[in-house]
Every structure is written in C-alpha cells, then in structure tokens.
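ARCHIVE CARD
SHELF: 3
SLOT: left
DATA:
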Amino acid sequence: MTTKDKYFSYHIFYFPFKWNVEGGNEMNLSEQIDMNRIRFRETGGWLRTTSTSGVDAVNLYNEKNYYYQFVHKVLYDDGSEESLIRHFERLESQKEGSDIRYRIKVKNREKPYSLKVDAMNLNLYATGVGFLSLYLGNDREDQSAPADILFINQYGRRIMPPFFGDIVLRNETAESLEIEGLGKELRDDFYGYQINDAWKPASFIAELIEEVAVNLSFEPVIDDRMFVICWYKNDSLCKSYKGKLDEYLKKGSDDDFWYRFLFVDGGSCTCQNDEMKYELLKSHTYPRWEKWNSLYGATRYSMVYLTNNGVPDYLLTYFETIYARMVELVLMQRASMLRFSEEVTKVSHLSHQETEVISKRISSLYKEYIHFVNQIYFREVTAQDQGIELYDMLQKNLKMEDYVKDLDGEIGELHQYVSLMDDRDRNKKATMLNNLATLFLPVSVITGFWGMNEVCSVVKVSGFGWQLVTLIAGILFALCFIYSKKRRL
C-alpha cells in the first residue's frame, strides 16, 4: 500500500487573517506590519522553520523548478529577519506515530467525521496577513462516499455561524469542530456565540494563532469560511464525465456532484437555473486532462481535483504541494489587498489630523503597496502551461486584476489628496510671509532711504514725531494693501 492508497480523499483548509501588533493601530502601515516588532513565544507548540524543512527533497526539487526563482522569496521562509514570510509548523504533527484528528460533528449523523492531521502550518507575511493551514487525510472507508466528501468540506471549513439563527438550526454550521491529540481541549460547539460576536472565528482557531506570539491580534480577512483544497478518488464519478464533459456539465449528474464539489455545497445545489449553472461550471472547470480521468476546478473559495483510483501518486502529490503553493500565493495576494484597502479607509477618516500626520500615513501605505506590486503580486509564476492556466483561473475567479486596479486608483487618489493638502499649506505659509514682508516694507523703505540717521537731521525738521507719523502711515498703507488683496482672492 502506497502512502496515497491509505487515503480516500485529502482536504487542506486555509484560514486567511490579518494580523496587528497590539497598540499599533495609530502607527504608519510600515510600522504596523513590521514583523520584527512581533514578540514570538520561545516555548509552545509552534516552531519557526524554513518553509522547506518538512518537505521531501524530491518534492522540494519539483516545487522550486516549477516556479520562477523570483517567486521563491514569497513561497519559502529563508530564516532571515528580512524574509517576506515567517513559517511555523506544529511540533506534535511532526512526531512519528502521532495521531492527531480533526473531528467534525454534523447534525443527523451519529459519528463525527474523523480526519488524520498530517500537518498544521502557520504563515505570517510582511504585508500584515497570514493564514493557518490544516492538512487532513481521510483514511476511513465509512466516510468516503460522495455525500461524505461534500459534508466534510462544507462543515469542516465553517469556523463561525454565517447567521445568528444557525446557532440553533445548524444547517450551515457543524454541531462541533475539534482537534484531538494536542494534549489539550481544542473544541468549539458555537453555542457560546453572542449577538456581538460577528467575524469571531472558532475558539480553537484563535487559541492556535495566539500561541505563536504574545502581542499579536488577528481578524478574519476574506470570509467566514476556510478556503478548501480537496482531491477525491471515485471511479464511478470519473466515468460520468470522461469523454463527454460538455454533456456532463450541461446535464450534470443526478445529485449535481461536480457542481456541489466545486462550489462546496454540502446540501442541495445552490444554483437552480440550468443555463446559469452551465456557465458557472464552464468558467470554473479546468478540463485539460479529462480523458485521463482528471478533472480540476477552482472558485473563489475552493480548488478541487476529481480523479479515479488508478491515479499515479505523483499527481496527487503535485496537487497537495505545487498547486497548494499556488493557492497560498493567490490567497495571500487577495488578503494583502484587503489589508491595504482597510488602511485606505483608516487614512480617509484622518481629515481632522495635521497634514504632516496624514502625509506620513499615506506615504507609508504607498511604499508598502509598491513593495507588494513589485515583489508579491505576479502576473505569471511559472513557465508550465498547466500552471499558467490554473494561476490565471484562480486570479480571474478571485477578481484579482479588478481589485488591484481599484486599489491602485484609491491609493492614487489619496496620494493626490495629500499633495493638494501640502500645496495648500505651502500657499498659506507663503501668503503669511508675503503679508509680513508687505507689513514691514515701509520700515525697510524708510531705513533704506534715510539710512540709520534720524529724519530730522536729513530734512532739517526737529523732533521724533515726523518719523513716527511716516512709519504709521506706511504701516496703514501696507495693511490696506493686504486687505484689498485678500478681498480680490
């Protein structure tokens, strides 16, 4: 039995979030997202490693040769303080013989779904975002039916109730989620949620992330669900589409499995219009290897792979490693743009602050955005055809190009706004200096014309009064000139 033969399906859940160093909200963005300000815990369940330490040498070779070298800086932690990524791995999952389980208790099912935790990773990026990832193998035949795979993805990814009524109904949320085998209770049944707990992830998610550092706070940044990567082996389902994909997409199967698998619908199909459903399937399905029993798909919250039991192990490994890296990159890009958009909103509400304060905030934002565009947001990451096509599909379905264009416009408008504010302040200061110069012009004229001698000694008029009268008249003339100038403006 090969390593992949022991699994009927494989599930990777990504939880993207934005992080902040406590007390840094009023700082410039460059200071807010400075990872060197994070006080990482020296003890605990997480260990910073290079992003390649737990990867098989052969798989690492394949990964690095698949992606352009300039992309490696974003994918791999090199261990330095200047690295764009801090990569942490859960120590318990790396121990030989460990049996950590991710348990999903679903309503109306007696036994919880139980998945083996192969790895737990946590990445923090220099753009102020990160994600927690769970690598889960489905090694039990009694939970390998198509309906089971759909339920695992639907309920295993939902880490908060989507609406308040589901705390009782549990139509979209599992009855409980639990990670077992870490030596402590990591479980949430969601019954403790209150009306003010919007965008509050499951307690075990929060506890795992907070174990990394003592001064780190976080919030979900993309969705109330984790992103799903999943491969599933099923001979019968492959026969449904092999050699007749277009017909399959138009008619679907009796249970609309491919649509529900692709769009992570645990219950019934959420699109009840045949024409719309066909268009959605066409734009989110990647059919290159259809006749070889391989059907890929990508949406804004999933990437899936449906194949048969005869699939070579290396194709499943590629999906878990190379394509998973691609998803990590795109998710990080998407989360980073939302992080920048949040900063744009914050800066837009600083109109009561001094121009210098606003200017520094915008300059810092602009600097980090340029850094993001040049070092993280790539139009192409590989020379491989399939990689180019899948990357384009992910970018398109997550609307990356539109978001970058909009964000570029927002930051450009902010930059223009602060430039106008700077110009206005400079004009005010120049006007004030001009007025002062005008005010003291009579004194300068008198001094220049008569020198430092008394007027009376020049015009043969005795007394200080003549000098005083001349000075006052000159000042009054200057004030009248300034007043008339302001009225014209």
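SLOT: right
DATA:
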Amino acid sequence: MKTLVECVPNFSEGRDAAKVAAVVSAITSVPGAVILDQEMDADHNRSVITFVAPRETVVDAAIAGVKRAVELIDLTKHQGAHPRLGAADVVPFVPIEGVTLDDCIALANTAAERIWKELHVPVYLYEAAARTPERRNLENIRKGQFEGVRDEIATNPDRKPDFGEAKLHATAGAVVVGARKFLIAYNVNLDTPDVSIAKAIAKKVRASSGGLPCVKGMGVELKARHLAQVSMNLTDFETTPVAAAFEAVKSEAAALGVGIVGSEIIGLIPKRALEDAAAAYLKVEGFSPSMIVENRLAAAMSTAGPAKKSALTDFVADVAAATATPGGGSVAAAAGAMAAALGRMVASMSRTKKTLAQYETRFAKILTALEADCAALEAAVERDAESYNGVAAAYKLPKDSPERPAAIQAALKHAAEVPLETAERATRVEAALAILEEIGSPSMASDVAVGRMMAEAAIGGALANVETNLGSITDKQVADAIRARMEEMTS
C-alpha cells in the first residue's frame, strides 16, 4: 500500500533566501521527498516548508533539513515577530495516505531521537506525540522563547527536554517535534498598526481563552506593511471552519472600530476547507463536495476504463495466496473500512434531503468521525500484515541472542494492539451506523444493515486476532491492559 506523510517544518529564517534555499535543497536530496510549498515572511523572520514523502524516507528528509538549519541559523542573532525556540523551530508529521496519526507519533519519536543523537540538539514532543498533557500545546513549550528557556532549562524540571540534556544548543536552541492532523495557518490583517488591538482580538477568538474550539491565535505587528495581524492556527478546520474564524475576527474588530484589510493562508489548505467556506458564505443548502464538477469528474475517472485493474481484485488475490499475510487481521480491518464507507454514503446522502434537515448537524458530525475511522481502518489493512511480519522476524533472531526475548515480546504486543485498535474503531463505526439506522433516510435501510453486519464482523475478527497474540505475551501488566480494553468494548 502506498504511504504518504506530510511534514511542515518551520525554520527561524525568513529574510535570507540563500539560507532557506539551502534547507530546501537538503530536504529534496532525500529520495521521495517532494516540496509542495514554501513561504518566507520577513516580518516574522520565519519560513514554512511543506513537503511530502513516503513513510520510509520522511524522517530522513526532515532531519536533513534540520541539520542544514542548525548549521546556518544562529538564534543569538535572530529577531522577528514570531515566537521561536529553535533554528528548526517546529517539525510536525501529518498523516496523508496509508498512515495513521499513531504512525506519525512513531515517526516523531524516531525523528526526535535521531536529532538529539546525530545533531546534539535537544527535542521536545508536542501535539499528539506529547508525553504530558501540558506539552500538547506548542505555546507552553515555547513560553519565554529561546532566551527564556535557555536561562531556565538547567534549573526548572518543567523545562527538561524529552530527548537530550537540560541545555539548549548554543546557536540552534531546541526543536519541537510532533504529530498532528492537518493544520491551517490563517492570518487576518487589520487596517490599524496598533498591535494591542490584534492581541485583544486574538485573546477573544482563541480556544485557550474560551473562544473558538481548535483555534490558536496571537496578535503580531507587520512593520513592513504598517499593519497589525491576528495570526491563527486552525488545528481542526472541520470543528472550526475558516469562515467561522474570519467572521469571529471581523466581529471583534468591528466592536473595536477596526476594519479588515484582508486575510492570508500560510502554506497549504485542503480543498474541502475552501469548499466549506464557499458553501457557508453562499448559504448553499444541502451542500456536498460531490456537487463540485471537478470532484465528481475525479471520482468518475478513477473508476473509468476497462483496462483498469481493481484494487479489490488485487487484495482478494493477496489474501488467497499461500502466504501468511494479508490474513484475518487485514480482512477484519477491510471489513471495518467498508462498514465505515457505507456509513459515509448514508450520512452524505441523508444530509441532502430536506425532510431530514433537522438532523443536518448530526449527519455532519457522524460523517466527520466516519471519515477518520475509515482512513484509519484502511491503513490497518497494511499495518496488520506488517505487525505479523514483525513477529516472524523477531522469532527468526538467533536463539542465543540476548535481544531475542524482548524483541519477540515487543512484536507480539504490537501485533495485539493493531487488531485491538481495529476492533475499537469498528465499534465506533457500528455505533454511528446504529444512529443512522434511526435518523437516516429509510430508503437506505439495507445499506445501514449491511454496514452494521460488516462492522460486527470486523470487531469479532479483530478480537480473535488479539486473542491469538495475547496468549504469548508474558508481561502480565501489558496483557491485563489489553484485556481491559477488550472487556470495555464487549461489556
């Protein structure tokens, strides 16, 4: 299965194009790394590079960029409007295709360990990769910036990095590495240079101050343009769309007698986010992405042509082959993905019906959840096969190898956790389908019924695979924790 991970490293250099070009060149020197976008901002003195790469090489590409930044950027001489802790300030991994958020957490940990060992730059983990709740939020880690953390790190235990010594690199500071969902960097420019107004508005709209959920915000000064800016990160655009963030800033600005000059997107934005924004402003009733001709054309073209080989045909052939993988765990994950797909279809079609308009909000929430579950279950098809291969590889280690017992147990634990996650996802899918059975279009009752049966098969099949591996796990604490999660689903 094809895998694709997005990485969006932020570097503390937005004025020297040669240095940024050198960092980009280092990233693209790694096979499979493709630059999608790069932004330089002189006021912020910061650049944002967006690239994608397969799971196998994305960490290599990220570290190549970090290494070049460490060599070229000196934070003791750096000044800009944007807070910063490191030369390579933030390095997030984002799941795109064939990978899950959990996979990106593992990539973040691998990258963090290598950055410390190879570059001797300490690393903090944030967002989904954070090891403590306080470090999920980047602003908590970066509080005080390079200078403040440098002065406190040796004496304040809360400042201790997740990887490395309690001492910042003399010129490169520290790197904050993490895993997250797709983030939209969205700024709204005000028609005033008064940064205190931008800060007041940011405080009103950001989630940490009781504003919009999944919104981070700060006020900054754009000296070159003689403007103040409300700079935001939308960490979940499905929860708080771009249009909602813009309207909130516009409303707060109007209350303070300030207008909007314009807004800007830093980096890339998902097509769906703009589709939703357009639908919101146009007040399109019963809007669905399938109403857009380019989306409909892409879907039609992906299945057109008699010469096109069916991916399902390939998968069935792989299952039928005389090999251990893909096996029951992969099939269970595939069944769960199909159940989620049926639920998505029912929710999408039901929300367009005027007779069911009172449930539109519920359909939207169900659809969002099912999209995430469907993607994770699709990825689990391959992950289950890989976990089995890991167990087989561990058992093939020399019997006198001191690492063999620990390697076997680690592989068995992973091989149990993958189908357990499949069962948990499929359980959520089945619950969503049960709701759709009540509120969805009656004309699709048979689709919901098939979906529920597929979800039940996925749950049962996945749990059977958990049991297979559980019997060989010798760590009672690990085994008990897995059994507790199984009982929570079946109780």
